[in-house]
Amino acid sequence: MLLSTLSLIGISQPTTDQQLAAYYFQEEDFEKAVLYYEKLYKESYSDFFYQYYLDCLVNLKSYKDAKKLVKLQMNINPNNLSYKVDYGMVYKFEGDPKKADKQFVETIEELPPISSSVIELANAFQNNGEFNYALQTYTKGDKLLNGTYPFNFEKARLFGQLKRYQEMVNEYLSVLLLSENYLQSVQNELARNFAFEQGSEQNSLLKQELIKLIQKHPGKPVFSELLIWVYMQEGNYSAALLQTKALDKRLNESGERLINLANIAISNQQLDVAIESYDYVVTKGKKSPYYTEARISLMDVLKEKLYNTPNYRAEDVLKLKGAYLKTIEELFLNARTAKIYRDFAHLEAFFLNNADTAITILTDILKNQSVSPEERGMSKLILADVYMLKNLVWDASLLYSQVDKSFKYDQLGEQAKFRNAKVSYYVADFSWAKAQLDVLKGSTSKLIANDAMELSLLITDNTGLDSNEIAMQMFARADLRIYQNNKDKAWGILDSITTTFPGHALADEVLMRKYQISLKQNNLEKAEQFLLQVLKDHPTDITADNATFYLAELYEGPLNNKEKAMEKYQDLLLNYPNSMFVVEARKRFRLLRGDNLEQ
């Protein structure tokens, strides 16, 4: 094998001769380099120094010495046919292509029926740019081994290097006709060597050939499985869903493939595909072993979709309630289904203002002996939240304290501690609230730590010996009213702060709360105006980076203005480089710009 460049990687503690040889070689001073490599080679006859020595001789046009060197190496390693490729390459450099071709053909004829020898010789040709002879080597290998070792993967890589994509695709798919057990290997190869962008030549060819094979071999599910996988690689989950359904029906399966697809879709935020996948399994009825799993998971995704929709409609909430009622009718309360009941209680309390109904449901969960300690703790948290809705502040605080004590070294306990700190904040016990929040700044949950830090800063900046706490007390009451979904009372308190304490340090926070209320009321234009006012009147306050990020989110999502969203994400990166939103803003900016984040 002839070389253009190599390094001394793999040679430990290079000698002075090795260092000088490498230096002169890199400087292309082959007359000096050849002296050192000749000496080094004759000391060890190693393949490493042979390669450099040969390359020096070829660059110096010392073809006679180069042939002698190759013959010597062939005698030392008679079973390694790659040296015969080197011999042919010397003829080629010498200007005698006929002798080179003759040498190559004769070398291929000498191939033994050993797969490693075939691959070694093909690689030798390939590394020297003799791709046609590499392909001839694999063809010869196929005949010699008579199908006992398929060279499809090696040939596919070679065709890919030559940009002969049709043949590349054919090789990958042909190996699946030999055995479906190669599916994972084919997927691994494609993941490393393929372009899955929709519309690319490679991707289009692969899908076309797969569809042909699905029609030609309906009894071989491997081609449908690969096509589904390809659709998911390109992000076309809807097409993957159609194929998965078709395969499930064709093979009369129980829905396992749809469950797996739904789980992958959720991890990629393809909630509609997940919903349709789970719903498909549910329609199979209780005869499917995945029925209960699909029902439970379907409710999780339906809930997540509603909760992540800032401009949801009242009918969307009622539709979700109907789905919960239908599910609860079929699935009785037990350890496995308790989460559905808990989520239903949350919906009743926080979306439908039915706090008493939620309390009844949560109390039933806590009475059920089959429910796990963790589920009991989470249900207590929600029950305490509902008590806060009903203004039963101390009942809520007691439950938070119980969960905090039971899960002291767990994130569930940290959640309880944080919510209990907020209770103290709501009732204007600012010093106790801040003490608890300062502990939570070191939380293992980044979200809890950030929320604790933000609320702690709010308290610190607006309380103390030299601060009039009346405005802060009013602001805390407004926050409690927002939490209790009493937006009109909250708005009235916020207006009173502005009127009674003009120019107060809480002015930017008041605007942020009005933004939150407007967003919950789906008044997007008003929400936008409050954020813009924060940036106009308080560009250096601690809320400015939050306002910039939320404004970008608003433009990216419900206001559907990609250009403005990119502008605001960029503003955050440039003007607020220490913001906790920087990483997410950079990611979203790049996605909107069309960057491939996997590169």
Low-pLDDT runs of 5+ residues are 4-13
Helix count equals: 32
Largest sheet: none
- Beta-strand content: under 5%
Which term fits the overall shape? elongated
Decide which structural class fits the backbone. mainly alpha
- What is the helix content? over 70%
Average pLDDT, rounded to a whole number, is 92
Could you give me the name of the CATH homologous superfamily of the domain at 498-593? Tetratricopeptide repeat domain
Within the CATH hierarchy, at the fold level, what is the topology of the domain at 498-593? Answer: Serine Threonine Protein Phosphatase 5, Tetratricopeptide repeat
What is the first-to-last residue Cα distance?
32 Å
- The CATH architecture of the domain at 498-593 comes to Alpha Horseshoe
DSSP, total strands:
0
Backbone CA Rg: 35 Å
Explain what this protein looks like in three dimensions.
With 599 residues, the protein is an all-alpha fold. The protein has a domain at 498-593: Serine Threonine Protein Phosphatase 5, Tetratricopeptide repeat (Alpha Horseshoe). 73% of the residues lie in helices and 0% in strands. The protein is built from 32 helices and no strands. The protein has helices at 16-26, 30-44, 47-59, 63-76, 82-94, 97-109, 115-127, 131-145, 152-161, 165-178, 183-193, 201-216, 221-233, 237-250, 256-267, 271-283, 291-307, 314-330, 338-350, 355-367, 373-389, 393-406, 411-426, 430-440, 446-462, 470-483, 487-500, 507-520, 524-537, 544-556, 562-575, 582-593. Helix 13 runs antiparallel to helix 14.
